[in-house]
Amino acid sequence: MYRHMKGHGDIRPHSCRICGKAFAQAANLNRHYSVHNGERPFSCTVCNKSFTQQGNLRRHELVHTGEKPFRCKRCGRMFSQRINLKKHVMLHQGYRPFTCEICNKSFLQLQNYKKHLQRHEEKGIKTEENDVLYECAMCGVVFNNFADFQGHEIFCEVAGEEQVETTTFDLDEQQQDELEIDQKPIILQQTVTHIVNS
Q1: What domains does the chain contain, in order, with CATH numbers?
Q2: Which of 63, 72, 99, 154 minimizes the number of CB atoms within 10 Å of its CB?
């Protein structure tokens, strides 16, 4: 319990020598290094997708079980993963971080933004290329396209459990009110976990 509570404090003495991300516990830092070395020891038994952390695998398994414990208070839509609910709430709030520099149309999801840019390119309209590199502060991945970087930074899953519970964007009070979680235990492969409403 002491170790768990220590993780909620501001003191994070264990820093990643590769990207600088700091952790309260050495064990979390060691787990974080798997992001940089490409190790993904936790595999889904259904689709073989692999993950750096067991918590990420557990969240992924909800996709296969069909369970959807996360509900939008505004429209009632259910989601199997908290991050998908947060993306959905951002749509209600009008949050669209990817804006086309040609026509100013905005998108929530990077893939839709890229499809939109392809349509411009098919018409012979090109966007300006630049040589600036953007680096994710969470995992160190480098992008040469700002939109790719921005999308990755918003939904970077490098911090695993911590990243999903406290995402890189801040929810205002109204958005927090729109997030509702059905409080019930989830049983996956004989392992009982719990969902904490943060």
Answers
A1: 2-91+169-188 (3.30.160.60), 95-155 (3.30.160)
A2: 99
